[in-house]
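Hi L., both proteins are below.
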Amino acid sequence: MTRNRRRRILFCDHTVSMSGGEIALLNLVRHLDRTRFDPVAVLFAHGPLKDRLREAGVPVHEVLLDRRVSDVRKDALGGAGIARSMLAPSALPFVLGLRRLVRRTGADIVHTNSLKSDILGGVAARLAGRPLIWHIRDRIADDYLPPTAARLVRLLCRVVPQRIIANSAATLETLALPASMTCGPRRRAFVVHDGMEVTQPPSAPAPGPPRIGLVGRIAPWKGQHVFLDAAAAVRRSFAEARFVIVGTTMFGEEAYERRVRAQCTALGLDDVVEFTGFVEDVSSVYASLTVLVHASTVPEPFGQVVLEGMMAARPVVATRGGGVVEIVEDGTTGMLVPMSDASAMAEAILKLLREPELAGDMAQRGRERAVAHFDIRDTARNVEAVYDSLLAAE
């Protein structure tokens, strides 16, 4: 092996739908320096991420994980649930097969991208004797994971990966790592914000009724029910307003969607609220919006949708907490409201609708902040610096 050869990075992910972490992974591999790094991926299921990675020039392998393990939701990992899912009889042959793939690909670094891949891919990497990076994209907190699972992940963070990348300072804080891991000469944990490709923002929305949108997976913690309560309040004061809920359910959350649709009917909003389902080209949604709303009821690990809205030069109303406060400067590049507070959310939306000059200025400043601080090229260079530190140590 020569000192200047390209280093092979094997990315592991158990989730193959195009949710926030997978979009961030795809953005990252598209912008890695291919003269220095050679990305390869292994996925634990069939899904759209495979084709998107291949379109980006990344070879993709599949080592299929038992659905009884891969489909376990984060909120079901408490108590014996985490042992049943991660220590199921099918887990051992899966890990051994993954170890063989790690060796066969000649990976210089294994870079895991999701909680289940952190644990299962992490074990495989250590068994194969390869350096390991955990990319933590979930808040390891009791309001996001069951306490047992959160404690276990925090413990494993200290002993399994050689390096940790957190997608926000808020995420890193939930790991409760000792200071020796987060600063100083022996530092092992780094914050690297997710980024986006900088493109031309869309033009102003077409003339017509103002459109207020919520984009993201339909799930209780994403707050579609709060958004609808806010929409009802906005409509009472701004009758021409229209609302759009973009996204679909994952992980067996169909019952919540039914409740949200019933709530919409009960509030008398069926004539002004559109449920679009999954939209492949979400940029077209942002282009149509007057205001983008983020309504999560627990702190977000990062806030990809908020960043997308700012990059599209749309004024944003978002809930205050987690990584969102690292993206939005309240009152300058967006408006932050308390979580689960539909009244405050409605007031912020109404302020932007009533003061279009303020909304335009805020959208422009949001766009400028997104370009300056969340360019995907900077994200890639920062991740590559973590690779360099690990390879130097090895």
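That was the first. Here is the second:
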Amino acid sequence: MARSPSSARRYAEAAFQLAEREDAVEPWLRHLQSAAAALGDESVVRSLQDPAVPRDQREAAIRDALGKVPVQVRNLVLLLLRRNRLELVPRVAAEFKRLHDRRDGITPAIVTSAAPLDEAEVGEITDRLRQLTGGKVELEFRVDPSLLGGIVVRVGDKLLDGSVRGRLERLRSLVATGAIAH
């Protein structure tokens, strides 16, 4: 059953408030991300939520899977298990990371290029995005050969399309609307 993204957000916000009170946001983030990785497989979640398996066995399996995480993080995951919402763990971790980044003034950005970028290009893009956002940026790089050339940058809800494919599509649109005579 699909769950509302706001459910994950509420759990993340509560966890974030607790982590801030304990001055332990960084460890919480690390451990939530490792829990999300451990529980990111849908088949693992299904087996851990299987009502045919006694709850104490499922909880023991989670304790084993999580290893030595702080008790509060483990309790959050166990709470999600008890509420049959274990599939929310990856989204809770992602929301927690978003809250962490916002608190620290970090802007996430995704840079997609037609081919892998070299160090100089990465440095130039990083500098330009820092100027654009006025703060720290955390870049994720992806490669998509269908772009043909150039880059596409997504910063929050903004899309900066400097790809050859994007330019060709804009040109085609102008020709199609008659803005440019054929």
